[in-house]
Amino acid sequence: MTVLPKLTKKQKQILRLLYEFRFLNRIQIQAFLGHKDPKTINMWLRDLRAKGYVEWIYSTHFAEKTKPAVYYLALNGIRFLRTLTVTNEGGEEGFAFPSEELRKRYKEPGRSQTFIERSLLVADCCLALERLRSQASHYYYQTEADYLQDNSYYHFLLESELIRPDIVFCKDRSGGEGKTLESYVLEIFDPTLPRYRVKKRLDNYVKFLDEEGGEWRNQTETEKLPIVLFVCPRMSDLIYTKRRTRGLVADAWEWEEDDAERPQIKFTTVEKLKQGNVLDRDIWEAA
Predict the structure, then answer these.
(1) Residues 6+ apart with CB under 8 A from 21
(2) What are the structural domains, with CATH classification, of the chain?
(3) How far apart are CA 234 and CA 197, in angstroms?
(4) Helix (H, G, I), strand (E, B), or coil: what is residue 180?
(5) Which residue, 42, 37, 73, 51, is CA-closest to 5?
(6) CB atoms within 10 A of CB 137
(7) Which has the closest alpha carbon to 72: 49, 51, 95, 47?
(8) Which of 94, 101, 83, 95 is nearest to 22 (CA)?
(9) What pairing do the DSSP bridges indicate for beta strands 70-73 and 24-25?
(10) CB-based contacts of 152: which residues, under 8 Å, 6+ apart?
């Protein structure tokens, strides 16, 4: 049995973050940890690299040196996560992370730049949600890696053959009942995704809202359907997806546009999302 080098509590937390988001830069890791000193973060990351827990993507080219390094799980990091266990409500012990998901992490060195950029954008969205928490309300989110866990609040999405969002999140009223005020599902379209596959995904989301809306309400114990958010790579893609979705909605639902019960589907571009934040109303356009 391989004896793994020792880790600090914060370093273990970094490995969990890399499992959840797949790729993170130093600035994002520091923000998730809520740590003020970048030198300490760099020291932890340097030690993790030396011990084979993480690997990085970093260019020494002059034009690229200003960009922060991007980190992902290395062999020892995956081995460490395989050792972690959790105890369920029935007192039974099991592994904390699904084996099939951990196997995917072995392929991280070969991921495309598109995949990496989408992972970083997902992380930025989640950081924005954390910053928007207040005493009156807070945002609870799960990434795909989160809701694939057996004990996840949104694990029922795994049973759906229609959608696999990048992030699911909701706005809850803090304190008291913790009542859910609004729910969202967000998917980012890759720039290399063919139009026929974009069309299929749009169709699947409309079917999900139309055919599986009752299941969503039952599982989440909320009255409203989630607001669907699509992030498009370019403005031309946004125009296409809006037009296509408008037609799909018209065929599926008979509600008028000003009907309060009409499901909401909104669109933005990657550029707008990076300039604002995921809950900035000004960046989203309705179908």
Answers:
(1) 28, 119, 122, 123, 126, 143, 145
(2) 9-108 (1.10.10.10), 113-286 (no CATH)
(3) 16
(4) strand
(5) 51
(6) 16
(7) 49
(8) 101
(9) antiparallel
(10) 142, 146
| Nearest CA-CA partner of 154 in 139, 176, 169 | 169
Q: Which residues of 37-60 are buried (b: 16+ CB within 10 A; e: fewer)?
A: eeeebeebbeebeebebbbbbeee
DSSP, collapsed to helix, strand or coil, labels residue 279 as coil
Per-residue pLDDT, 115: 96
| Assessment of whether the complete model's pTM goes beyond 0.85 | yes
Angle at 224 between CA 221 and CA 227, to 5 degrees: 120
The residues pairing with 6 across neighbouring beta strands, listed in sequence order, are none
How many helices and strands (H and E) does the chain possess? 11, 11
Q: Provide the 3-class DSSP secondary structure of residue 23.
A: coil
Contact call for residues 76 and 52 (beta carbons, < 8 A): yes
Pinpoint the alpha helices (H) of 137-234: 144-147, 195-211, 213-220
- Say if residues 73 and 105 touch (Cβ distance below 8 Å): yes
Pairing of strands 227-232, 54-57: unpaired
- So what's the pLDDT on residue 257? 65
Q: In the structure, what pLDDT confidence band is assigned to residue 176 with cuts at 50, 70 and 90?
A: very low
